[in-house]
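@channel sequence for tomorrow's demo:
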Amino acid sequence: MKKIYLVPVIMLIYACSPKPYATTNKAYRTQSKDLSKQMLLQPEDPVNDTIKVPPYWVGTTNFNLRKPSFVIIHHTAQNSCEQTLQTFTTPKSAVSAHYVICKDGTVHHMLNDYLRAAHAGVSKWGNLIDINSSSIGIELDNTGFEPFDSLQINSLLSLLTKLKKEYNIATANFIGHGDIAPTRKNDPNYRFPWKKLAEHGFGLWYDEVRDTIPTGFNHIQALRIVGYDVKDTTAAIRSFKRHFLQDTTKRINDVDRSVLYNLQRKYM
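C-alpha cells (generated this afternoon):
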C-alpha cells in the first residue's frame, strides 16, 4: 500500500517547493554550456593518410543554426502535467519535448527550439527518418482517453502561430506522433481537433466537395505520397483514418478513399 501513495507524495513535495526544479534546471544550464563550448570549437582537419591537409584553416562566414521544419504533436499518456514534467526531468526516462501544455493552458517551454529533443523515437515521414533532428515536439497533457480542453487547444494555437512564423514551417508539416510512428503510437488520440488546426493553417485538410476517384487509384501509393510509412499497410491506414476521419478502424472504405485521393493531390 505504501508504494501506491509514493508518487502522489513526491508530486506534493515538488508542488510545495518554491523552486521544485532547481536541481534539474541547473543540469540544463550545465549541459547547454557544454554544448555551446563544442559549437565554438574550430573544426578539425580530418585525420587520414589519404586526405591532403591544407596549410591553414578557412572558416566560412555563411552559416546559421539549424531550424526546425516540422512540429510533432503528442499526448502525454500520463495522469497530470506535473507527472510529465517529472518524467522529462528524469535522466533515466531518456525522453523529452520542447513544450508541454497543461489542461489549463499553461505552456512549459522545456528546451530551446534549436536543440534536439527525444520525442519522436523510431519514426518516419516521407524520406525523413531522423525526425528528432528537424522537429519541435509538443506534448499535450492528456491520458489518451479523454477530450482536449479548450484552454489547452487555445494555447496550442497561439504557440503554433508563433512557431510557424518564426521558423517558416510549411503548413503540411504539422503532424502527430501517430502519423510518423503508426505501428507504435496513436497520439494525439482520435479526439484531437486536427480540422480546427488546419483551419488556422497548421496541417492540411480535405475538401468537403471532392472529385470522383479515378479508375486504378492506388490508396497505398497515396498514403506514401502524403508521408506515411507503408511498410505496415494496416498501421498506415489506421493512422491516416485516426488523423483525418477520427476513426480508429483499420479497413479503408469508399469515403476514406475519396478523402485520401483529395489529400494526395494537396501533398503532391
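heads up for whoever presents: The chain has two domains: 65-205, 206-268.
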